[in-house]
Amino acid sequence: MKKLLLKRMLIICLGVICVTELVHFILYLHFGLVKSQDYRDEFVDNMDIVALINKEAHYIDFVSYDDLSWKYRNSISKEMFQNAKNDEQCLLIYNQIISATHDPQKSESFFTTKGMDMCTGYESLIVAGKTYYIEHDIDVKTNYFTFEPYISKWMISIKETT
């Protein structure tokens, strides 16, 4: 009798957990993915507006440190990120981001700026008399538990020009 009651309670608990997770997953698909798309679109719009107003802006000025994934926040301090205002400091941070990025040529998200028309960020930096041409793309994902979007991957390509 006790074993039968225990089995029923276990089955009921597992059923409740499965239904709860199913509801959470449906909410994630509905709200979380919409937030990722909105974040990406707003990011691209803001980047275009600020770039038109301020020609001296760096791409790093468009990215919030708090929106970066943990792998980037672990490789770069918040103070260093926020205080990067000249070309040399930006290039240093970009190189740190490249070293923290796994497979920088491959996008891993549905919500990316890579491949979108006119949404890849471009900038030129002059450091020690050398000119660097830099391309930026971001992937946006949503945290499964908080439904908050974040930059999961920052793909940077640096080419030295002559």
Structural features, described:
With 162 residues, the protein is α+β, with helices and mostly antiparallel strands. Helices cover 48% and strands 22% of the residues. Strands 1, 2, 3 and 4 form a 4-stranded antiparallel sheet that branches. Strand 3 and strand 4 (149-161) form a beta hairpin. It is elongated.
Q: What is the compact description of this entry?
A:
With 162 residues, this protein is α+β, with helices and mostly antiparallel strands.
SSE arrangement, N to C: HHHHEEEE
Shape: elongated
Contiguous runs where pLDDT drops below 50 for at least 5 residues: none
**What is the count of DSSP helices, taking H or I runs of 4+ residues?**
4
Query: On the 0-100 scale, what is the average pLDDT?
Result: 84
Q: Determine the N-to-C terminus distance.
A: 83 Å
Total strands: the figure is 4
Radius of gyration: 21 Å
Proportion of strand residues: 15-25%
Largest sheet: 4 strands, antiparallel
